[in-house]
Specification:
Helices cover 18% and strands 51% of the residues.
Length: 136
């Protein structure tokens, strides 16, 4: 009788271990790191860009160097409703014969936002916010 109970326990433990192993192999490893969200992350697109601009004024003997890194997020809520958010990391420095190299912190984070609703080809409603560094 003890052998039969022992064999049944071994069979049960083996079946439990195999079913647990089957669930582990079916589990997506990325899902372990996902946070609960009401937004569908497959509709989110990101892109980045970087630019550097240099301007020299011969009249005033000064120069300006401007660098801009932009991270754009685009999310499509529906076929006719989408949102764009730009985070611009702008750094600009002035230098010349009189002021040498400006060591002031001229780094700014400038957000841009756009919400666009386009129910038909002939009608479009857009809310947009643009920000620029002071003096431009």
């Amino acid at each position: 009788m003890k052998k039969i109970v022992f064999i049944i326990i071994i069979i049960l433990l083996t079946s439990i271990a195999l079913s647990a192993q089957e669930n582990v192999t079916k589990m997506n490893p990325i899902s372990a790191f996902q946070f609960p969200s009401t937004l569908n992350m497959s509709k989110l697109q990101t892109s980045q860009s970087f630019s550097v601009t240099s301007v020299f004024s011969s009249n005033e003997n000064e120069s300006l160097i401007l660098s801009n890194f932009t991270n754009r997020f685009e999310y499509q809520f529906a076929k006719n409703l989408n949102m764009k958010l730009d985070l611009n990391f702008v750094n600009y420095k002035f230098f010349g014969s009189e002021n040498n190299f400006s060591l002031k912190d001229n780094t700014k984070i400038l957000p841009n936002f756009q919400l666009e609703y386009k129910p038909s080809q002939n009608f479009q409603f857009r809310i947009e916010y643009q920000s620029y560094p002071a003096g431009f």
